[in-house]
Specification:
- The complex is a heterodimer of chains A (262) and B (641).
- Chain A is of the alpha+beta class.
- Chain A is 34% helix and 11% strand.
- Chain A contains eight helices and seven strands.
- The radius of gyration of chain A is 21 Å and the shape is elongated.
- Chain B has a domain of 137 residues: Flavocytochrome C3, Chain A, domain 1, CATH 3.90.700.
- Helix content of chain B is 37%, strand content 15%.
- Chain B contains 17 helices and 21 strands.
- Chain B has a five-stranded parallel beta sheet with strand order 5-2-1-9-17. Chain B has a five-stranded antiparallel beta sheet with strand order 11-15-14-12-13.
- In chain B, helix 3 packs parallel to helix 6.
- The model of chain B has no long low-confidence stretch (mean pLDDT 95).
- The chains are: A alpha+beta (262), B alpha/beta (641).
- Chains A and B meet through helix 1, helix 2 and helix 3 of A and helix 3, helix 5, helix 6, helix 11 and helix 12 of B.
Chain lengths: 262, 641
């Protein structure tokens, strides 16, 4: 099959970018989208041109490293998938595809289709953990966790941190990502002691990170490769509001680790 | 090198008391002194992430490096199956000794008793730690942890989190690591690739030279100790189940600086992967082995049979595993299944457009158990298969083919996980330590976390205790010299100005290694491959073409450096496979099979760990041997007939 690609090319974070046109000819429909780009890149390199840079690693849809916009949709037109698991058989011969990096203030472009998602790491660092140093854990079965709670926590924990939710959101908001971790840990008994501090600290880090506000478009849920539900956003908001109500002004510590709201 | 230098430092005493007794005598570092030590941890997967987090918690200054954009992406994340622990929650007779025994037997008696026993001991604490972190393991209705039997084990000791156990364990370690980054004990360097190890004149590891993958700048990092936790080298084969970025550069550069490489030929091939669909194929996807519980493997009797599989009658099908191994049938161990499948395909009986697979057929199981039962067991795997192949396994049988998956070999380490280079520690898949010639299912995650959470914090601390007050610095001759060499090498890669891309060389190299040093090996094939690899390596350096510039994001340059290292490693793998003139574990030498095709191990001559020493380019490496002594178990021979 033959495709026409318009690809965002940008040499570096400070350089101006532009869309460039490439013909992807003779592509096997069984190849993945990234394998199609591999073929295009091999040809570009053979003719002395610079390869299109894109992030990728496991190519199994679990590491969360890959992702870009295809015709305005994060990870492309198929639901529940990352670009590495999107196969060319879902496109038609002659299609024209526009590839752009995640577009969000919080994710500066590194090069071409690569962006810097460090703001996600900083949200986790602010409180996306349970404080338990190695060696101090009690026997694993000491605290039963009802299966439906464990299953619900798992659904939130499935987030791969790819950033599609932010990229698709008209506001560039990170509520889905943040609420997934807040909920994963906040649902489990182990996560209760820090539950409200965690929500506060992570939401604050999210706001510092340059993400936009949530206005319930639910675009994030639609493009999430793991199908994470926006119900978790509502849950996070409840935890956040409770935590803020409890926190007396001026007594709140900034981090989840040392903070106390009680 | 003297034999003493290869000392495993396994403590004396009864097997079950060794680790405890050893810990009783390890040296400690005063808490107020820990911040005076800098430890470099390269890699942020289960072993590296867990080590960096735990060392940070203790108060050491840690610098952690990964080539991905975040430590959360390391390839541990892709492990599906589960993690073993001797909790005996099922009251089915499991114990630390049994887990130890199954692991050492699974490794075909080519690993150290003491290391494997320690692994089994620590398995219990790993589960406690992970649950406390919030890892959402599967649970029963009563709220307690669920276990399943995995990889042919007779007990249910595998903890799992749906098909995403690796992801959840890695995120647990990543969260612990994130807490330390926030606390300031760990400094994280994402998008940074280690390109060389700096060894001082005294033979001690002093630091690393790394490349910032965004700016292309070379950076120097110095530490009191260096930990390599950079994973395995299955990508030597080009097509494997590893992530595209997984590579051997860190361990290989360390090897060139003097670290011994142990058992390089011990690589594991997974039997149930989706076959390649064309020459653009970039990696292979593994499907859970559990599929073999209900799927039947077959090929048409007639290689020229052009009918679609569902129209081929029973009489014209060859269920080759069921015929050859009536007792175990489709559930023979990984290596036996993989070897027989490759033989069938090599013999021209492969199926599918590329003739490179065999059928895995659920027709009987669906008829017997009903669609709902099969969907319950394998629904997500069926979906994955449809996504990748576009074929519907409810209608037509799946096609499968083996793929490289895990490497048991790696840098040689002693009981403390220190290599023969003073101050260089190696953890997880990057070392050779616990899996012998074959790795038992659900034990890779266990080893990565045992090394990172529990072994290194104890043994590394003991090492550091002897170096209090010593300054570390990136100034000086050793760093100057190694950085200059790294720069020269990058210039050489960029300056070759030939016709072929790094990717094309890698693909061709992988093809050679897969056929000569994959599922089955022979002296003739290995000898030929060593020549072919040398020829291709010469062409690589003359005809390589790397696009882009050095001082920017340059994925072609990254790839070229990794492929250059694969050439040397591939040759060593073949030399090790040639040298090991026996069949054992995953390593089948065609010359050493019983008349019924069973592998013939040779304990009299080969009950050792091979440890290879770099001698310089174009000079064959020298092999040392660490004898393996079995004091607590009697090496037995397996049979699956």
């Amino acid at each position: 099959m033959n495709l026409t690609l318009y690809v965002w090319r940008q040499a570096g974070p400070a350089a101006p970018g532009r869309m460039e046109r490439y013909e992807a000819t003779d592509i096997n429909p069984d190849s993945s989208f990234l394998e199609m780009l591999d073929v295009v890149n091999e040809r570009l390199a053979a003719s002395g041109e610079d390869r299109i840079a894109f992030d990728h690693d496991c190519r199994e849809g679990i590491c969360g490293m890959c992702g870009f916009m295809i015709n305005g949709e994060a990870h492309g037109p198929r639901r529940g998938t990352t670009v590495c698991q999107l196969h060319m058989r879902h496109f038609r011969d002659g299609d024209v595809l526009h590839l752009e990096p995640w577009r969000a203030r919080a994710f500066p472009v590194v090069k071409d289709l690569m962006v810097d998602r460090g703001a996600f790491d900083r949200i986790i660092q602010a409180g996306g953990f349970i404080t338990v140093s190695t060696g101090s854990a009690p026997e694993a079965n000491i605290t039963p966790v009802p299966k439906r709670v464990a299953d619900r926590a798992f659904e939130a924990a499935e987030c791969i941190g790819c950033g599609a939710c932010v990229a698709q959101c008209p506001n560039g908001a990170a509520q889905l990502f943040t609420s997934a971790k807040v909920s994963h840990l906040g649902l489990l008994p182990q996560g209760q002691p820090e539950r409200h501090d965690r929500a506060l600290a992570m939401v604050e880090a999210m706001e510092r990170g340059g993400f936009g506000a949530c206005s319930n478009h639910a675009e994030c849920q639609a493009v999430c490769p793991k199908g994470i539900s926006i119900d978790f956003i509502a849950r996070m908001n409840r935890d956040f509001l409770k935590a803020r109500a409890r926190a007396a002004p001026g007594t709140r510590a900034p981090g989840g680790e040392h903070g106390s709201t009680r | 090198m003297t034999a003493a230098k290869l000392g495993s430092k396994v403590p004396s005493g009864p097997l079950a008391a060794k680790w405890l007794e050893h810990r009783n005598h390890l040296r400690l570092v005063n808490p107020s002194n820990r911040r005076k030590f800098t430890v470099l941890v390269v890699g942020s997967g289960l072993a590296g992430g867990a080590a960096a987090a735990s060392l940070g918690e203790l108060g050491y200054r840690v610098e952690c490096f990964c080539f991905q954009d975040s430590p959360r992406r390391a390839h541990s994340i892709a492990a599906q199956g589960g993690i073993n622990a001797a909790k005996n929650y099922h009251n089915d007779g499991d114990s630390v000794f049994r887990l130890f025994y199954d692991t050492i037997k699974g490794g075909d008696f080519r690993s150290r008793e003491a290391n494997v026993h320690r692994l089994a001991e620590l398995s219990v604490a790993i589960i406690d730690q992970c649950v406390a972190q919030g890892v959402p393991f599967a649970r029963e209705y009563g709220g307690l942890l669920d276990n399943r039997s995995f990889g042919g084990a007779q007990v249910s000791r595998t903890f799992y989190a749906r098909g995403q156990t690796g992801q959840q364990l890695l995120l647990g370690a990543y969260q612990a690591l994130s807490r330390q980054i926030a606390a300031g004990t760990v400094r994280m360097f994402p998008r940074t690739e280690m390109l060389d190890l700096v060894v001082g004149e005294d033979g001690r590891a002093r630091g690393i030279i790394a490349r910032d993958l965004v700016t292309g700048r070379l950076e120097r990092h110095a530490g009191h100790a260096v930990v390599l936790a950079t994973g395995g080298y299955s990508n030597v084969y080009y097509l494997s189940t590893n992530a595209k970025g997984s590579n051997a550069t860190a361990i290989w550069r360390a090897h060139r600086r003097g670290a011994l490489f142990a058992n390089p030929c011990f690589t594991q091939i997974h039997p149930t992967c989706i076959p390649a669909s064309g020459d653009y194929q970039s990696k292979l996807t593994r499907m859970s082995e559990s599929l073999r519980n209900d799927g039947r493997i077959w090929v048409p009797r007639d290689p020229g049979d052009g009918r679609s599989p569902e129209r081929i009658p029973e009489a014209d099908r060859d269920y080759y595993l069921e015929v050859k191994y009536p007792a175990f049938g489709n559930l023979v161990p990984r290596d036996v299944a993989a070897r027989n499948t490759k033989q069938v395909v090599d013999g021209g009986r492969g199926v599918g457009p590329q003739k490179n697979g065999v059928y895995l057929d659920f027709g009987d199981a669906i008829a017997r158990l009903g669609r709902a039962a099969i969907a319950d067991r394998y629904g997500n795997l069926f979906e994955m298969y449809v996504k990748i192949t576009g074929e519907d396994p409810w209608v037509t049988p799946m096609r499968i083919y083996p793929a490289p998956h895990y490497t048991m070999g790696g840098l040689w380490v002693d009981y403390d996980l220190m290599s023969n280079l003073d101050g260089l520690f190696v953890a997880g898949e990057a070392n050779f330590s616990d899996h012998g010639a074959n790795r038992l299912g659900a034990s890779a995650l266990m080893q990565g976390l045992a090394d990172g959470y529990f072994v290194l914090p104890a043994t590394l601390g003991s090492y550091l205790a002897g170096h209090l007050g010593e300054p570390v610095s990136t100034a000086g001759g050793a760093f100057d010299a190694v950085e200059a060499e790294v720069r020269q090498r990058l210039d050489r890669l960029l300056g070759a100005r030939g016709q072929r891309s790094p990717e094309s060389f890698h693909r061709q190299l992988g093809h050679i290694v897969w056929h000569a040093c994959g599922i089955s090996r022979s002296a003739e094939g290995l000898t030929r491959a060593i020549g072919e690899i040398a020829d291709l390596r010469r062409e690589f350096w003359q005809n390589l073409r790397v696009s882009g510039a050095p001082a920017e994001v340059n994925q072609d340059l990254e790839k070229a450096g990794r492929v250059a290292d694969y050439f040397e490693l591939a040759e060593l793998m073949c030399r090790d496979a040639l040298d090991r003139d026996e069949s054992c574990g995953c390593h089948l030498r065609e010359e050493h099979q019983a008349p019924d095709g069973e592998a013939l191990r040779n304990d009299e001559e080969y009950a050792f760990v091979s440890a290879w020493q770099w001698q310089g380019e174009d000079r064959p490496e020298v092999r040392f041997a660490e004898p393996l002594l079995f004091e607590s178990v009697e090496p037995s021979r397996r049979s699956y007939k």
